[in-house]
Structures are given as C-alpha cells and as structure tokens.
Amino acid sequence: MSVGGRRASVVELACGMGEFDAAFLKTCPSVRQYRAFDIAVPAVAKTREKISQVARPELDVDVRVSSVEDLDPEEFRNYDVLVGLGILPYLTDQGFEKLAAIGRAERISTGLSSQGTDHF
Ligand SMILES: C[S@@+](CC[C@H](N)C(=O)[O-])C[C@H]1O[C@@H](n2cnc3c(N)ncnc32)[C@H](O)[C@@H]1O
Description:
It is built from three helices and seven strands. By secondary structure, it is an alpha/beta fold. The site of S-adenosylmethionine has 19 residues, from helix 1.
C-alpha cells in the first residue's frame, strides 16, 4: 500500500488478537509504519506475537494497551490510514468523539465497521 507514491502509515484501533494486522502486513509490504491499540492486555500480547511473525526490518511497529478514549488525536496527525474493525459497539460517547477527532487529525482512508469483518 502506498499513498501518493510513498509508503503508508497505518493506525489500527481495537486490534483484538492481531488477525487483521498479520494478514494485512503480509499482503501490504509497502506499509512502513503500523500502530495498533487495544484496551485488553492479552489482545495486545497476541497481536505483538502475530506481527512478529510477519515483521520486516524496515517496518516500524508499535502495539500498545490503550482504550480509544485515552488516545491523543494529535499523535495521529501524520498517519495515512485509520482502521477500526468491530470497535463501534464498544465505544462510549467519549470514545466516538475521540474517534472522530483522530479521523480528522489525519484521514486519507478510513476503515471502520461494527463487526469484525474485512471492511477496509
Ligand atoms: C469484536 S473485537 C474486534 C477485534 C478486531 N478488530 C477484529 O476485527 O478481529 C473488539 C475489540 O475491541 C476492544 N475494545 C473494546 N472497547 C475498547 C475501547 N474502548 N478501546 C479500545 N479497544 C476496545 C476489545 O478488547 C476487542 O479486542
């Protein structure tokens, strides 16, 4: 995946067990930066494990425990793509506001869905 001819940076909210991350990074070798977040500690551990199986030296990855509500939209100002699969039913009003602010901070492409499907 490239954006305007350069390698893309991607933020994923509520990454779950990393199923999407691993498949996505494997099939999109031009992604240069990947940030993933989930509120659940075991989910983040599993995502890190899954991503390590498809890691490449030039790929800058960070997977962190955080709720959407606790994220700082300014952190995502320079990202190209925002992904959030299956997150919508879990968000509080504050989470929806934060999601909108994160989307405004960067967005070129957004993949959000209320179910854990392959929307993108
Ligand atoms: C239905 S799962 C979807 C997981 C993954 N995106 C997928 O499609 O397989 C929902 C995920 O949202 C996470 N989650 C729930 N509320 C959250 C919140 N407020 N902030 C961040 N993650 C949250 C859960 O821990 C869970 O991993």
